[in-house]
């Protein structure tokens, strides 16, 4: 049975992905900040191990790495994310901006670095990170969401760069836009249901070939400009 490690698995898209991978027979290492409060995650049937991880804290990443030891991981799914401050130009809060970068851009890289030995032992050798079309410069930024947009643009570069560097090791690295999804972050008016987003994300990851490494995908399998 393949093993997936997913961050931010206690709610939203991460929870739905944890449910679906468990239902598909995967071993799911479901990470969240507060396992004791992760009731929906604990209720999932299947092989789900809930582990503590605050992606914003390098020490928490180090503790997770130590706990996992040399265990193989087939797929690392960086899902945890924050939106940060919603204000537009002229309202930038430096602390919030950097905190958003820490979670959305830096943490996925630190986690990939920490878990590389585990991924090398896995059969699938895949790293997928949930980005956003809001980080696409080519798609035409419409204003606002500075911290979030910049953090996802940085995530895209981090992962495109890692794809180039890890190619020789046989590891495929992609970033995925999940759609505008009905979650706490996406809000109730979002057009995409969380189940449809998760199903699409899984389909893209499942079909991922080494030749597609380094690409920016939409959840429906189409590509998005950088
Ligand atoms: P939610 O706000 O519903 O969930 C966010 C998840 O990230 C929660 O599990 C949250 O945990 C976790 N998280 C936040 N900070 C940390 C941290 N420091 N350490 C560990 N976990 C953390 O968002 P979505 O499910 O909608 O978003 C999932 C991903 O999809 C994000 O990367 C987001 O940017 C991206 N995305 C979402 C879109 C949408 O329309 N919903 C559109 C484009 C991209 P906790 O409960 O502890 O806060």
Could you describe the 3D structure shown?
The protein has 226 residues and is α/β, with parallel strands linked by helices. It has a single domain (3-218), classed as NAD(P)-binding Rossmann-like Domain (Rossmann fold), CATH 3.40.50.720. Helices cover 39% and strands 15% of the residues. The chain is built from six helices and seven strands. A seven-stranded parallel sheet has the order 3-2-1-4-5-6-7, sandwiched between helices. Strand 5 (126-130), helix 5 (146-166) and strand 6 form a beta-alpha-beta unit. Helix 1 (12-23) crosses helix 6 (194-206), helix 3 (58-68) packs parallel to helix 4 and helix 4 runs parallel beside helix 5 (146-166). The chain is globular and about 50 Å long. The termini are far apart. 44% of the residues are buried. The mean pLDDT is 97. NADPH dihydro-nicotinamide-adenine-dinucleotide phosphate binds at residues 7-8, 10-14, 32-34, 53-56, 79-82, 103, 130, 132, 177-178, 180-181, 183-186, 190. This is Short-subunit dehydrogenase. Belongs to the short-chain dehydrogenases/reductases (SDR) family.
């Amino acid at each position: 049975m393949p093993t997936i490690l997913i961050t931010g698995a206690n709610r939203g898209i991460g929870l739905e992905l944890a449910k679906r991978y468990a239902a598909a027979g995967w071993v799911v290492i479901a990470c969240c900040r507060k396992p004791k409060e992760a009731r929906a995650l604990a209720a999932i049937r299947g092989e789900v191990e809930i582990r503590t991880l605050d992606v914003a804290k390098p020490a928490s990443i180090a503790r997770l790495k130590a706990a996992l030891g040399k265990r193989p991981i087939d797929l690392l799914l960086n899902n945890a994310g924050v939106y940060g401050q919603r204000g537009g130009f002229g309202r930038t809060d430096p602390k919030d901006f950097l905190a958003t970068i820490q979670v959305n851009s830096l943490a996925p890289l630190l986690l990939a670095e920490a878990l590389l030995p585990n991924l090398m032992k896995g059969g699938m050798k895949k790293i997928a990170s949930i980005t956003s079309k809001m980080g696409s410069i080519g798609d035409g930024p419409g204003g606002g969401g500075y911290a979030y947009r910049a953090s996802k643009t940085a995530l895209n570069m981090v992962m495109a760069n890692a794809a180039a560097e890890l190619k020789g090791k046989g590891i495929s690295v992609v970033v995925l836009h999940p759609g505008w999804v009905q979650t706490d972050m996406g809000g109730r008016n979002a057009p995409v249901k969380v189940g449809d987003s998760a199903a699409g994300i899984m389909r893209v990851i499942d079909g991922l070939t080494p030749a597609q490494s380094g690409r920016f995908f939409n959840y429906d399998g189409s590509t998005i400009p950088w």
